[in-house]
Amino acid sequence: MIVKKLKRSSFKKSKSTMIGGLVNYILASHDDEGRDKLAYAGSKNFLTTTVAAQKREMISLAEESIQSKMPVTHWILSWQENEQPTREQVDEAVSLFLRGMGLAEHQTLYALHKNTGNYHMHIVVNRTHPYTEKVIQPHRGFDIEAAHKIVAEIEHRQGWASQINARYRVNEQGYVVKNPQRREQVKPKPKAEDFESATGEKSAQRIAQERGHAVIQDASCWEELHAGLDAVGLRFSRKGSGAVIFVGDTAVKASSVDRNFSMSRLCKRLGEFKPGYYSERTFKKPAPEPVSHVCREEWQEYQKERQRLAEERRLAKVKKEEEREELEWRQKERREAATARLAAHGLSILNIARYFLKEQGLEEKAALRDRQSQAEKPERLPRFKHWLGKRGSHLGNLWRFRRRIAPGVEVRKREFPRVGTLASPYVAYREMVKKRFPEKMDESRLDAAIALYMRCAGYTPQEVANEVFRHSPARPNGQSRDERIEYGRRVVWYAFGTAGDIDIANINPTPEQILNFVKEVEPVEKESLQTVHRQTLRMK
Questions:
Q1: Which alpha helices (DSSP H) does 253-295 contain, by range?
Q2: Cys-Cys crosslink for 454: which of 37, 230, 459, 500, Cβ 3.0 to 4.6 Å?
Q3: Mean pLDDT to the nearest integer, 269-278
């Protein structure tokens, strides 16, 4: 499960406009492309019951807060592709989240969305207490760290899978503790990561971290720091009371590379700041570098296309400038010729000619601007992730799941031959999966694992969908036919989609391993059939 806090970077709009727009967005039934978006919605701690009234109630309470520009906080909880939360689990997750944040009594609206590959929930909570009207600052501002602890608790209680590098987990005694298997790594801030995800290239912040972190960390004096950074193409400079690291002409806050690299902390360690002298190459913009090994060939092709379009734009700009200069040169020649020809007729005639020449020149420049604006503009290249998606959903999903793909792992569509013939494979594989994974597992995760095993055994997507639809346990409070079909569709989408391809590629099962687990499920089915036969005989 992933947790993310969305921050407002602009406060030009009023509180009522921002809050109203946010509530309208999370509770909208369809997204911008017309797809069904809203799977479930709920609210807590309101006096009113309708959505319109609750929105007005939240805005009214938020406007009572004079100290805070935006007392309403927006969080997102996201499940993995093979997980499908029930309404009861969504309600419980929200209650656990609010309790962990110390906001259990605060106005909250939440909505579960299904318009993407994975279910995700928006939580909008008003930090203004409804009775005291004080704005609460959860965990004294360290609420993101607290959110990761809450997520670990939700995962443990409901049986969801943790992220590979999760910060926290629940130990055997039931306490939330730091994940001992987590690899501590310096990584860019969310804004820089969003840039990398969109463009496919390393951000200036990541380059500064990869090249400069060890240099600054190991430096024993300012001279050594400057020389080390110059050797890797970076430079360190003071800016106001702080410090920045330049990657070409892009400045990166030194404290964003590491908190210990702020100017005050470095001066404590290295003494009073001394400026350095850098070679000319550190002032040049570095060539783009791919941020991931995934889709590297496509990224290189994208860069060539990007350079081609950039050259087209440059040539178009040069052509416009040449046309403008040519027009100005013609107008200048015309003025000089008219002045020489009409000078003998007196100043009045000359001024009249100058006026009309000026008006004619303005008209010609306006006509040139109109002609240039109407000319075909060079094509604009979309962002790398959108460019990949247009080339095929498989490539787009590979990029989306790139962090799951280890270097050297080949992800491809694999076709498995049918191994074994079972009359009721779902029941047999369910028992086998539960034995192999005895830890607590949500039913949707369990069904996704069953579907993945059945795919490896050679079953088709339709066969898996039919088995899940007929035999998977009913969800709490039941499911309508459409909801059950949607549930099975997502299970099959995971097992036979890119996420399933990646999980299979990471395991890389051999034919012998597949044959072994097929042999493991055959006795399970026989036992199940015998149990059904005995029950039938008793009924007779």
A1: 254-257, 263-270
A2: 459
A3: 92
CA angle 64, 65, 70 (to 5 degrees): 120
Answer for the pair 528, 432: CB distance below 8 angstroms, yes or no: no
* Contact of 184 with 194, CB cutoff 8 Å: no
Tell me: pLDDT of 532 over 60: no
What are 60-66's contacts with CB under 8 Å, separation 24+? 61/107, 61/126, 61/128, 61/130, 61/133, 62/15, 62/19, 62/126, 62/128, 63/15, 63/16, 64/128, 64/133, 65/128, 65/133, 65/135
- Say how far apart CA 257 and CA 223 lie, in whole Å: 20
Helix (H/G/I), strand (E/B), else coil: 285: coil
pLDDT at 318 over 90: yes
Looking at residue 246, its amino acid is F
pLDDT per position as a tens digit, 410-426:
898 889 998 877 877 88
Distance CA 370, CA 381 (A): 25
Residue 210 has pLDDT above 80, yes or no: yes
Q: How far is residue 396's CA from residue 116's CA, in Å, rounded to a whole number?
A: 13
For 67, counting Cβ atoms within 10 Å of its Cβ (0-12 exposed, 13-18 middle, 19+ buried), the class is exposed
Phi/psi of residue 109, each to 5°? -120, 140
Sequence letter at residue 296: R
Q: State the residue for tokens 């999370």.
A: 26
pTM: 0.83
Res 180: pLDDT: 82
Residues in the chain: 540
Q: What share of the chain has pLDDT > 70, as a percent?
A: 97
The shares of helix, strand and coil residues in the chain, as percent rounded to the nearest 5, are 55, 10, 35
Measured CA to CA, the distance from residue 540 to residue 522 in angstroms comes to 27
Judge contact between 467 and 454, C-beta under 8 A.
Answer: yes
- The alpha carbon of 327 is separated from its chain's Cα centroid by a whole number of angstroms, namely 49
